[in-house]
Structure formats: structure tokens, C-alpha cells
Design brief:
CATH class of the largest domain: Alpha Beta
Number of strands: 8
Shape: globular
Order of helices and strands: HEEEHEHEHEEHEH
Number of helices: 6
CATH topology of the largest domain: Glutaredoxin
Oligomer: single chain
Number of domains: 2
CATH superfamily of the largest domain: Glutaredoxin
Distance between the termini: 74 Å
Structural class: alpha+beta
Largest sheet: 8 strands, mixed
Strand content: 5-15%
CATH architecture of the largest domain: 3-Layer(aba) Sandwich
Radius of gyration: 22 Å
């Protein structure tokens, strides 16, 4: 009798082990095939060709999925933003095809950036993170080409970062309301930048949005992308 129970138990365990992956794939299938792509909130961000990296190269937004940051004239004062960005975004997306973090810095901040990098590089080198330098005017020009409701601080920094796609379009959410807010007909509001001080915002919303964008480009490579399912739906904006 005990032998029969033992055999039955083994069969049940094997059955569970077999069907669990199948169930997981069934749950995963709708999320990967019926997702709503990330909105284009602003077309054609200003080129960064007038900037120069520490290696003397010209950075590029083209053909990259870029997280664009502005740490200003005193980058060590904004180390918390940079560390949150590294731990919650950079470390999770390093190695994704075309991914990069690009920080636009004013000329003359090279020494402070070296200090900041020493903090950020623990324990790994910043292979996909570049610091690029230019004049104050060039930094302002790029920032003004972005869609955001606030300006740069006097020292040219902001705690928010921006997602730029491979075609130099700024990505985000034209409608960032929760389902409950939509049901209650709350006023529409956007999410065009991600606050690195707000851990939950970059850990949850920004991570999700980047994954959606990478999925879009993966589907484009396979010829499966359907742009008619954009998250914008029937939303209208003043843009």
C-alpha cells in the first residue's frame, strides 16, 4: 500500500513539474504579444554630436536606447541620483542590445566626474555608461529639445533622466494614470522623465518602460511589431 502511495506521489510531483512551466508560458504569452508599446512623447531630440567623451570620441544617440542624464557642474552633489540610476537601471540592463547611459556634463567637471565614477564603478566598470562634455549652451540646447515641465537648475543638473530611442525620439507615457484614476475620470497627466530620487519610480515605472521598449525593438527585428497597438489609444494631448 505504501509503495502505491509512493508511486502516486511521484507521478503527482512529475505532473506538477511538467505543467508549471506550461502554465508560466501561458501567462507570459499575452504580456509579450499584446503589450502596449511605449509612447513617443517628443520627436527628434537634439543631437549630441557637439559633445566629446573622456576618450575623445563623439557620442551618439542614433541606434542606441539611451538613458540621458544631466548631473551639472557639481556632480558629486548629485551622487544619490547617479547611484540609484546605476543600481536600479544600469545594473539591470547592462548587456541589452544597444543600451547606454549618457551623462551630459559641462566642460570643467572632469575631475569631479572621476570622483563620481570611483563611487559608481564599485564593483563593476561602467562599460555602457559614458560621460560627455560640452559648453553650457550645448547642454541647455539638448535639454530644451526634451519634453519636460521643469528646467535645469542653475548649475545645469536635474534629478530626472530621459529615455531616448534609437531614432532620437523621447519615450514615456502620455497617460500615466492608474486604472482607478481612469475609472474615476481623473485629469490626464504624463510621465516624460523619471526621478532618480524616487526609488519606486525608477525601480517600477522606468524599468517597466525600458523593458517594453526593448521588446518593441526585438519584435521589429523579427518583423512582428504592430504599431497600431500603441499605448496612446484614443488619448489626445496639446502637443
Amino acid at each position: 500500500m505504501n509503495e502505491k502511495k509512493s508511486k502516486l506521489k511521484k507521478k503527482l510531483i512529475l505532473g506538477v513539474l511538467f505543467f508549471l512551466p506550461v502554465l508560466f508560458l501561458l501567462f507570459l504569452y499575452p504580456s509579450t504579444h499584446n503589450y502596449n508599446p511605449l509612447d513617443i512623447v517628443k520627436n527628434k531630440v537634439q543631437s549630441v554630436s557637439n559633445f566629446t567623451t573622456e576618450q575623445g570620441a563623439k557620442p551618439s544617440l542614433k541606434n542606441h536606447i539611451t538613458v540621458l542624464a544631466f548631473f551639472g557642474k557639481n556632480p558629486m552633489d548629485n551622487a544619490i541620483s547617479a547611484l540609484n540610476l546605476k543600481e536600479l537601471i544600469y545594473d539591470n540592463f547592462t548587456g541589452f542590445k544597444g543600451f547606454q547611459v549618457l551623462a551630459l556634463m559641462p566642460n570643467g567637471t572632469e575631475t569631479q566626474v572621476k570622483r563620481l565614477k570611483k563611487e559608481l564603478e564599485k564593483p563593476d566598470a561602467l562599460k555602457y555608461w559614458q560621460f560627455a562634455y560640452a559648453t553650457n549652451a550645448e547642454i541647455v540646447k539638448v535639454f530644451r529639445s526634451l519634453k519636460y515641465h521643469k528646467g535645469l537648475s542653475e548649475d545645469l543638473h536635474t534629478n530626472t533622466v530621459f529615455i531616448i530611442d534609437k531614432d532620437l525620439n523621447q519615450r514615456g507615457r502620455l497617460d500615466d494614470r492608474t486604472d482607478k484614476q481612469i475609472a474615476n475620470k481623473a485629469p490626464l497627466y504624463e510621465l516624460t522623465a523619471y526621478n532618480c530620487i524616487e526609488v519606486s519610480e525608477i525601480k517600477n515605472k522606468m524599468s517597466e518602460d525600458l523593458r517594453i521598449l526593448f521588446t518593441e525593438y526585438r519584435q521589429k527585428r523579427k518583423g512582428n511589431f504592430n504599431s497600431s497597438s500603441r499605448r496612446t489609444g484614443n488619448i489626445t494631448t496639446n502637443e
